[in-house]
UniProtKB/TrEMBL annotation:
Keywords: Nickel. Coiled coil: none annotated. The lineage of its organism: Bacteria, Pseudomonadati, Verrucomicrobiota, Spartobacteria, Chthoniobacterales. This is LarC family nickel insertion protein. It comes from Chthoniobacter flavus Ellin428. Gene3D superfamilies: mk0293 like domain, Transcriptional regulatory protein pf0864 domain like. It holds the Pfam family Ni_insertion. InterPro entries: Ni_insertion (IPR002822). The keyword Lipoprotein does not apply. It comes from the Bacteria.
Length: 151
């Protein structure tokens, strides 16, 4: 760890797309995440001739660049990708279960030197409790956050 943070090296792939529909972009994101991308995001940009576009960015393990590139080239209109290896600083992660009035929820904790500096209810856990209880997702998030802070 560096200064109490965990570190790793990952690769970021970027490409600019000015002719892709939102449906294609969404499906591409789903495929990249299913194939092991650590994160996928779109940034609105303007390209030459003032064309609105998006920059597709993918964060992946260093050894997974080729499968990510294959998906991008097959699923989008990209003709090229930029790649860059970057070092990430990360909090140590731990998961705890909290009991709410709606059911049990998993909370993700981020620690630095053993001290909790972040706490956030896990989306999938909250969604499952929301579906089972019929309560709004926001209510589950709020209840989980309150329960964790009462500990």
């Amino acid at each position: 760890m560096s200064g109490g943070y965990e570190t790793d090296t990952v690769t970021r792939l970027d490409t600019n797309l000015d002719d892709s529909s939102p449906e294609i972009l969404g499906a591409t994101m789903d495929k990249l995440l299913a194939a092991g991308a650590l994160d996928v995001w779109f940034t609105p940009i303007h390209m030459k001739k003032n064309r609105p576009a998006v920059m597709l960015s993918v964060l992946c393990e260093v050894g997974h660049v080729e499968p990510m590139a294959d998906i991008i080239f097959r699923e989008t209109s990209a003709f090229g990708l930029r790649t860059e290896q970057i070092v990430r600083l990360k909090l140590e992660r731990r998961f705890e279960k909290v009991q709410t009035e709606f059911g049990e929820v998993i909370v993700k904790l981020g620690l630095k030197n053993g001290e909790v500096v972040q706490a956030a209810p896990e989306f999938e856990s909250c969604r499952a409790v929301s579906e089972k209880s019929g309560q709004p997702l926001r209510a589950i998030y709020e209840a989980a956050t309150r329960s964790w802070h009462r500990k």
